Amino acid sequence: MLILDQILGRASDPRIADRLHDLSHAGRVETLTLSGADIQRHRLRLHSDQGTDCAIRLERHQHLSNGAVLMLDAERAIVVQMEEQRYLELQARDAAAALELGYFAGNMHWKVRFAGERLQLLLAGRRRTISNGSNPCWRTDASHGAWHDRAGQPPDSAATGRQLLSRRCGGLVLGTGNLLADGRLGADDSASGNRRRRGIRHQRSASLLGFIQGQLRHRWGSFDRAFLLAAWQAADDHQQLQSLDQRIEAMTLAAELRQGSRRLGLSMLGVHAGLDTPGAAAYRQIVLAGAAPGHLPVVQGMLWRALDMNPDDCQLAAAHSLCTGLASAALRLGLLGHLEAQQVLTQVQPTILELLVEPAPLPDQVHGFSPLAEIAVMRHETRICACLPIEPAIPRGPQPCC
Hints:
By secondary structure, the protein is α+β, with helices and mostly antiparallel strands. 49% of the residues lie in helices and 11% in strands.
């Protein structure tokens, strides 16, 4: 077995190209053909086109690429050749669809490239058939389609359900590499260790599903949703927007929830100011001047109205963003894998549809009740570990303040 532990350069480098040319005439240039997934690895074993058993073992700071030269001496050379990569090309129908597509491409960490006004997504992992009508995850037409198309059509639950499915499947179709990393594709189900892990993850998935449903019903649906729609209605009235903003600030008890909402709102304003979305730069200056907190529901309603998104799509996007954000947090904490997260996002769809069918409350009627989540957040604020029981304090006379 031949061990290759460094990258000597690229085949296009002038100092290397001439030597490769001479060796190629003698048939002494071997190639290692790597897939898009393998080329990101630092350690792997494979055979060259001439049958040489090779083991690649690179340091973390070195990265394989097409044309990387791993061996070069007087006898032979070994060069990396990358398989042809497949891309799914999408073109947004309008600015709102382009914004949504860009948001999900970034949120799902898709690898993309640009071809004029079209976005090309790298297809990684298992091959999938994506065609119009044969896969509900994507809805396309002759112009490469839009993320969803409801122009001129009244809202209905079936269309909303299809949009939810398309949003969820966007990550599922192109995220099979993550599933493979989790060992969930092609895994041996007979291993007792895998069974135990699946049992633990199933319990955690059920807990996460219950938590997300509680946040949707008792926080977003009864509180954030009302301010989102009110901001959509008052998108051109900055004084009314500031009033809504201040009400959210006053009615959100936990400091970290207020800070998180303001941070997300300001970030969203910054992105849209850079994209020249109408009203974004002006309201961002108001927030930076301290005249308004810039909470996320208000910013979402104002900006999405400026992008000509209808109220139904705004509510759907906000609810889905909440769900994906919570699922992503669970992934980062290692509580569950990508497949379980996708299953949770599937199971929560009926809850979103139920909420969207119900009339939204007015800002004067809002309420929120998620005590366990708020208590956990406030414990974090005071640096008390949420996973440990808190014993009641026993008075013992004057105590030093710490």
